[in-house]
Amino acid sequence: MKRTEDFRGGDIYRIISLLRKQVKTLDVPYLEHMASRDHSPFQVLVSCILSLRTQDKTTTAASERLFSLASTPPGIAALPVRTIQDAIYPVGFYKVKAKRIRDISGVIVKKYGGTVPDSIEELLKLKGVGRKTANLVVT
Fold it and tell me: Would you call 110 exposed, middle or buried from its count of C-beta atoms within 10 A (0-12, 13-18, 19+)?
């Protein structure tokens, strides 16, 4: 392998070109996909909760199963915890996450009129929402 000072001017451009081509073939992490598309802040919030200590592939499938049942705070708040558990399994800590998602949905309905708060400070008041999740939801 060449040391940095051994590269000639043209080599570096060839390497950058190769890297750019390779990066295009990589899968975008699921949460970036969720946050960058036309998904609601609520769907980003729920997907973030599901993603903690879970592989992207598992998070994607679990989110799709859950959102096929309900994709709004009132809809998820109305689901039995067991139904949410079944939808999100095998996500890590699925039993805890199912209860937390339903509880957060209920708080969003009761305290915020069904609309996800748009400030980091308010999101951090929701049990189970940390700074990383809050930042992804508001961006």
Answer: exposed
- What residues act catalytically? 132
Encode 35-48: b = buried (16+ Cβ within 10 Å), e = exposed.
beeebbbbbbbbbb
Angle between helices 56-69 and 81-88 in degrees, nearest 10: 140
Write the DSSP string, 50-116: HHTTS-HHHHHHHHHHHHHH--SHHHHHTS-HHHHHHHHTTSTTHHHHHHHHHHHHHHHHHHHTT--
Domains of the chain (ranges, CATH numbers): 30-138 (1.10.340.30)
pTM over 0.90: no
pLDDT tens track for 69-120: 999 999 999 999 999 999 999 999 999 999 999 999 999 999 999 999 999 9
Which letter, b or e, does each residue of 50-87 get, where b requires 16 or more Cβ atoms within 10 Å of its Cβ? bbeebeeebbbbbbeebbeebebbebbbebeeebbbeb
